Amino acid sequence: MSATNTKTDNCIRDKDGNFLSCYYASAQPEWVTDFNGDGIADALFHFMDEGLGGGGNAFGYEYRIVLLDQAQKIQKQYALFGGGKMSYGQLNINRVHNGKIEASYEENQFLRGNYEDTLNLKSEDLVFSLEGDRIVEAHYHNCPMAMMKKQIFKTDKGLKIEKDIASDDQYNEECTESITMPDRSQYTAILGGCEELSLHFSRTIAYDKRLETNKAFIKQTLLEELLFLKEHTLYPTVIKAAYDQVQKTQSGSLTIEQYGGVTLHLNMADHWQAHLFISGNAEQGSFLTLRFVKAKAGETMAFWESMDNKMKLKPQKKATK
């Protein structure tokens, strides 16, 4: 569906004139500081999407650090997740000072439901600054994952890797890598976390009806995908552990879900868990989602438990040679 905006407002409508969304940008005089330390004042802006492309009230917003030159022209912009109607939290700016953004990240009351107490919302105080070419939240430096090399696919396997590092909705550093397979499909991998490591792979391929109900074919496809990832990523041990469990699983014991496909939940050594999903349809193609999580202990932490624990972490000690 094509969309156009009008000269009279900041809204976007489809070709038939139906409303899709409205966009707004705002700032405050107090949101001016030198973010990159070049002696030139920069600015922070708030960007709101009131309909997320579909109208209604499914809003979403972000903040952007805008770097300026001496002529007050934009040199570069950096996006900072703000929140949305269905996000766990929503970020509010308290102060912009000395190159830093002081903010409060408050629990989203929309997720509590109509009958729950919305007066005692969880909240965390956060501090953001520009470090190198990224916005970093101060508490992330204390995360065990902050010391970890952000790489997923091996670079000596002839793969063309597209890589990006940004922040997730807990303001932890998140690495995304994409590779193109021989069938021109893409494997997208995401690595992130603070105390708990999350490694997520996804791929959409040409639709194959056998991946809806054929248990033997589903198992074989999962094994092939896991074998590829074991050989081409820096996580061969945990992926092999999942491979071994799937290999031992009898095809007949797999449960076909209501709309086709299979989900497997595996528990492995050292608090590792694997959640493997394969399904699809003729319109969207067949898709695979392979998620590996290294829990701190037992089950993975809930969103706000993880945020609260992160605030209490002590600075990480750098490894010595």
Provide a descriptive summary of the structure in words.
With 321 residues, this protein is mainly beta. The chain has two domains: 3-132, no CATH class; 147-303, no CATH class. It is 14% helix and 41% strand. It has helices spanning 210-213, 215-232, 236-248, 303-311, and strands at residues 3-5, 11-14, 19-26, 32-33, 42-49, 60-68, 74-84, 89-97, 100-107, 123-131, 134-137, 161-167, 173-180, 186-193, 197-205, 262-267, 272-281, 285-294. Strand 14 (186-193) and strand 15 (197-205) form a beta hairpin. The longest helix is centred in the last third of the chain and has 18 residues, at 215-232. The radius of gyration is 23 Å and the shape is globular. The termini are far apart.
Topology:
Blueprint: E1 3-5, E2 11-14, E3 19-26, E4 32-33, E5 42-49, E6 60-68, E7 74-84, E8 89-97, E9 100-107, E10 123-131, E11 134-137, E12 161-167, E13 173-180, E14 186-193, E15 197-205, H1 210-213, H2 215-232, H3 236-248, E16 262-267, E17 272-281, E18 285-294, H4 303-311
Helix pairs in contact: 2-3
